Amino acid sequence: MKKFASILVLGMFAASLLTGCGSKPAEKKEEAAKSWVPTREIEFVVPSAPGGGSDLNARVIADFSQKNKLSPKSFMVVNKPGGSGAVSFSYVYGKKGDPHTWMVLHSGQVMSAIVNNSPVKADMLTYIGVVGFDDLLLGVNKEGKYKDIQSVIKTAKEKPDTVKIGGSQRGNSDHLSFEMFNKYTGAKATYVQFNSSGEVMAALLGGHIDVGIFNPSECDGQVKAEKVIPLVTFSKQRIPGAYKNVPTFSEIGYKDIQLSEVRAISGPPDMPAEAVKFYEDMLKKITDTEDWKKNYIEKNAMTPAYMNAADTKKFFNEQSVLYEKMFKEVGVIK
Q1: Interatomic CA distance for residues 15 and 19, integer angstroms
Q2: Is residue 18 assigned to a domain?
Q3: Residue 30 domain-assigned?
Q4: Cβ-based neighbour number of residue 146 at 10 Å
Q5: Strands 190-194 and 164-168, sheet pairing
Q6: Bridge pairing between strands 211-214 and 137-141
Q7: Are residues 113 and 186 located together in one domain of the fold?
Q8: Which family does it belong to (predicted)?
Q9: Does 233 lie in the same domain as 141?
Q10: Where are the alpha helices (DSSP H) in the chain?
Q11: Same domain, 99 and 181
């Protein structure tokens, strides 16, 4: 009996040693993830010119990070417009393995890379997280010739190519919403491409285009100043706040015209796992604050959301298939 007990104790001791040895790499990995922090300024790339929704998204995140002391190093927001997002995609792709580079990523840029067959696609980068959902709408200059969506559609049908609708870049959400407008209303408007929604707004107020495509955050100031009239939204349901009286396309009889944007963050290929973990935790903390919910999400009539890196990757992989299908339906991709 003593001999058996001795063997049992030795066996348990050996097992505990094996267990201890086996747990060390996992513990070290976890400790590394916890201990990693940025060691220099983080470059935050915006794939469009200043003044748009992506630019606002980056600057608000950078501000919230510093205000809440979530990073020992600050963010430097850099605008790199061009090629409907391709310039920024290529730039960030060239920073392979760099844990100190971020890029704003939204559904429009993912679409653009697919439509334009860009050399760098979203899935070649590192997904970090989703921070919210945005909607799209059509707005007109209060001093312009159009006061309602029905008159825009009527003119675009009766006088093809005379109605000019401005949007930010090609092959993205703005462009897709325009193509959906033409296809499902039977209209034939002209798409005028700009580098950012800020440029679209300037063209609209200057009378150079008839209609602008915007996120609520991109036109909110002009809407509240009563310089821009929002005519219709591409959202599933009405947008709250200043847009609660603006109908959806579904409400006016075009149920197939529906589109929203996701706001997310990505990094270069092969970004270290410990950096991704640090950043996704940072984004979770930011999106959990009441300040973010009230002064970014609610203020800009957005839908709150958070996804970690793994869920963001899954989401965009699924959405990419849908985006390609939608662009094929409207005839942009043959």
Answers
A1: 6
A2: no
A3: no
A4: 19
A5: parallel
A6: antiparallel
A7: no
A8: Belongs to the UPF0065 (bug) family.
A9: yes
A10: 2-35, 53-67, 86-93, 107-115, 149-158, 173-185, 197-205, 216-224, 273-288, 290-292, 309-329
A11: no
* Tokens matching residue 58: 């980056």
For residue 62, give the nearest of 77, 49, 52 by alpha carbon.
77
Provide the number of structural domains found in the chain: 2
Taking alpha carbons only, the member of 293, 292, 189, 171 closest to residue 231 is 189
Whether the model pTM is above 0.70: yes
Place of tokens 């197939």: 256
Contact 300, 216 (CB under 8 A): yes
d(CA 91, CA 263): 20
Does residue 99 fall inside a structural domain? yes
pLDDT tens across the length of the chain (334 residues): 434 343 333 343 344 433 444 545 545 545 545 689 999 999 999 998 898 889 999 999 999 999 999 999 999 999 999 888 899 999 999 999 999 999 999 898 899 999 989 999 999 999 999 999 999 999 999 999 999 999 999 999 999 999 999 999 888 899 999 999 999 999 999 999 998 889 999 999 999 999 999 999 899 999 999 999 999 999 999 998 889 999 999 999 999 999 999 999 999 999 999 999 999 999 999 999 999 999 999 999 899 999 999 999 999 999 999 899 999 999 998 8
Q: What is the C-alpha to C-alpha distance for residues 138 and 212, in angstroms, rounded to an integer?
A: 6
Chain position carrying tokens 């603006």: 246
> What single letter denotes the amino acid at residue 205?
L
